[in-house]
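Let's practice the habit of predicting before peeking. Look at the sequence and jot down your guess about where helices and strands might fall. Then scroll down.
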Amino acid sequence: MSCPTVQKCCGCIGLETAGITMGVLDIIIRVSHAYIILNTEQRDIYFQVRGTREKTIVTVPPELLTLIDCLCFIITIVYLLGIFNSKRKWMIPSMVLSFASAIVSLCYCIAPLIDLITGVKGKQTDSLFYFIFFFCIAVFFVYFLVIQYSLYKCTKEGKKSPDTRYASKGTISDV
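Done guessing? Here is the structure:
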């Protein structure tokens, strides 16, 4: 069974434009996240993990998270270079990253879902919010993966993929 594909992102945006836009937004998010991590003084509150009876605080070294952001930044740069140079193989690491992000987001949905099922008093509103939030994030990453895979499928080695920017002229031209 193969991954589903789409012709256009959101029904009206060309795959190449959508891929570039998502790559640039990912770079902005990674850089701002690394900046926030390195300039936040209260890291304990930021990395709080919910416990059953008492709060469990986990402190993750900010350098580790910055390193992960840097690796993701490099993967996104390679993805963008793959789009610009029509190199399909350069897009694969970013698709793996999107798949892993979707899985992690779905894992974050488990604890709030358990709280909702067990009916822990006082946590239903927060748990519902966190469940919906992380589920929407997971759906976003899955859709991002579908767009990346569609762009990967329609990109030929050495040729630019068709884009909606040229649809108004009646022809599809190379960029």
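How did you do? Confidence is low (pLDDT under 50) at residues 44-48, 164-175.
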